Amino acid sequence: MNAQPSPQHLYAAGHFARTLVWSFVDLVLGYHLHARLGLPAAHTGQLLAISLSYSSLLDLLLAAVFTRMRNQQRLALRLQLIGGLGTAASACLLFSPGNATEPAFLPLLVASLLFRTCYAVYDVAQNALTSLLPRDEDEAMGYVSTRAVVVPISKLCIASALFGVVGTPASQGSGNALLICMIIGVLIAAAALPLACVATPSRPSATRTPAAVALPLPLPLPALLPVLLAAAAETALVGLAGRLFPFAEHGAALTFAMVAGMVVAPWLCLRLRSTLHSETGMLALMSVLAVAAVGVYLAIPSTPIAIACAATHGTAVASVGLVLWRRTALIARRHAIHSGRDDDLSCFALLTGTMKLSIAASSLLLGEVLPGIQAGDPGTSAALVSLVAAGSLLSLAALAWPIPPARSEGLRP
After folding, report:
1. Residues with Cβ < 8 Å from 164, sequence gap 6 or more?
2. pLDDT (tens digit, 9 = 90+) per residue, 157-208?
């Protein structure tokens, strides 16, 4: 008898494939544009910032559209298939080797915008399944834990593949990048097709008065705002250091070490939370480690120390990210129970839109600090450490704020 894979296993496969394509583009596109195609650093930062800003605005638009749509479970399953196939095709187009001697900014921007459009649909749908597929709150936490394990493993695979792209001869590196995109595309299709056929579970609903039916509760913005603020600070400022690793002398090794540190984060978070008896204490420790890792990396020019710092930085960033996704899933489920409607797609679209807009800002900062970091300028190094410290402090302050209770106006107890 053939056992059918569970929805959680299919969800894990889908998130694995989604993270493959996002991580590859996130880690390699800037390097590909600058080192392979010869686009100036400032223009590379501008292209990344424009495309990511567009992607974040698209996420926010999707958030507004999805608030008017019902049966979001089935809708999300269909969208992850459509968006996934489009993402796979556009990623291959994005990394197709160029024939022109001088890289053309506009065609590269158009290809990037096409990829961001497809990925926005794919990403929002995949992330919303974190709270749409589970049958109860306990199972939802299991989905979050599954995501926390699968995502860094997927990133580790991409970090391993970077050795075939970063530092290799130009023609070979470009060909390897396209081949990797094609393999990822096959994996996306293999994961998205069976996931689109999953039966959706029924969700608990609240008993609502006629007033509540006429005037549905808005999105849980009071609960989401601290999470969005933390995501913005963590992604734009703390994550800036990690975006510099591929450009270092041993860029592939540092990136691999950073992602390897991310793999350890879910296990380490559980241990630290039980030891410290406080999620805020765990976040404070990770914030200190993130800043210290960047400071030591810039101060001591040693390859072994740089690898250790990259791993520590990856663990710290992934630990905070785990809290961000867990809280968003929890807020979305509680809102659904109290309001009697699903707004998971909108909640996760707000989170991903915030992150992408923050990556766009981080890309602009990357274009400004990269020349100074490569030249070993002490002022630029001090500025980078200050930015990471400011981001860590803002993120910690936002996540230390307690989650407001779900609104229940118009609901019967």
Report:
1. 173, 176, 180
2. 887 888 777 765 555 555 788 899 999 999 999 999 998 888 766 655 544 4
241: domain range? 7-200+217-400
| Structural domain includes residue 363 | yes
Q: Tell me the three state secondary structure of residue 131.
A: helix
Report the share of the chain in percent with pLDDT over 70. 86
Hey, which of 207-216, 336-345, 379-388 has the most confident mean pLDDT? Answer: 379-388
CB 258 within 8 A of CB 310: yes
Domains held by the chain: number: 1
CATH of the domain at 383: 1.20.1250.20
Q: How many CB atoms lie within 10 A of CB 197?
A: 9
CA–CA separation, 144 vs 322, rounded Å? 8
In the chain, the amino acid numbered 250 is H
Q: Could you tell me which of 117, 70, 397, 103 has the C-alpha nearest to residue 234?
A: 397
Q: What is the pTM assigned to this prediction?
A: 0.74
d(CA 413, CA 404): 18
218's CB contacts (< 8 A; 6+ apart) are: none
* 156 assigned to some structural domain: yes
Domain membership flag for residue 334: yes
- Determine, yes or no, domain membership for 209: no
147: tokens are: 């995501």
